[in-house]
Amino acid sequence: MGMAALTAACYSLLMVYYIPLPHIHHSENDAFNIHVMGMWLGFVISAVVVAYFVVQMAQAVRNRDEMLVHVREEILRNERIVALGTQAAGAAHELGTPLSTMAVVIGELQHDIAADQPALRESLAILDEQVRGCKRILDKIMANAQDSGATSLQPVDELIAEVLDEWQLLRPTAQYRYSSPAPSLTREGRDGLGRPGGVPAPSINSDITLRAALMNLLNNAADASTQPIEIRIDWDRSDFRLEIRDHGMGLSDEAARKAGSAFFTTKQKDTDWVCCSPTPP
Q1: What integer is the mean pLDDT of 198-205?
Q2: Are the C-beta atoms of residues 203 and 160 closer than 8 Å to each other?
Q3: Could you give the strand order of the β-sheet that contains 176-179, starting from the edge strand earlier in sequence?
Q4: What is the pLDDT of residue 85?
Q5: Which member of 49, 61, 174, 251 has the greatest number of CB atoms within 10 A?
Q6: pLDDT exceeds 60 at position 189
């Protein structure tokens, strides 16, 4: 564009400041001047058109290069995700044997332990519960993998309750307070529909990815806050609302810009968990 403007300006100056050359057609000066003006106008138009299309072609090339870089990054990220999923599936398969061995050993210890050691018996019961919870999670992972991402329709309050139970097995020391419109025991009451105002709990397609996303939200909230996190669900005839509130410091500007990118995290390798008894829901 700069070169086109410079050459057009030089050509325009030559229309005013020039050294006339001898011309044999003295009687056709007006026609010749019109011819020169036409040449100038054709040059200016050609320069502008060529410059415009050159700029557009260069922009198209840059856009194509950016798109290729983005597609290449997406392919690399998908390959990493697939590799991570393959490793997770292999680990889930391999963890079944040691968990079964641990369950057998815990059962034998519970059988052989003396009755006058209630503290040790309670510790073994907690350990047995954790092992069974891990086996149940692994079985669910394998079942979901065999179903190829199949979804099931499930009420949202039941889904949240199941996710909280699984999360409590993984994070038994995490504190939280959970509130919903009505306890599950009163589902048959209140206007015959089981919820305040006569609005039943909506149903949602539940799959392993949704459960994993909710578990990540709960883990992030528990890691960010040393105080009990607050979990609240509510709904009406058109919307369902899930609120997970922690008391952390929030996201920095840099973290907010990168939030949502794959494999981005601000956590340290060693996470300090709050060591205290869980608050009952």
Answers
A1: 79
A2: no
A3: 176-179, 229-235, 240-245
A4: 74
A5: 174
A6: no
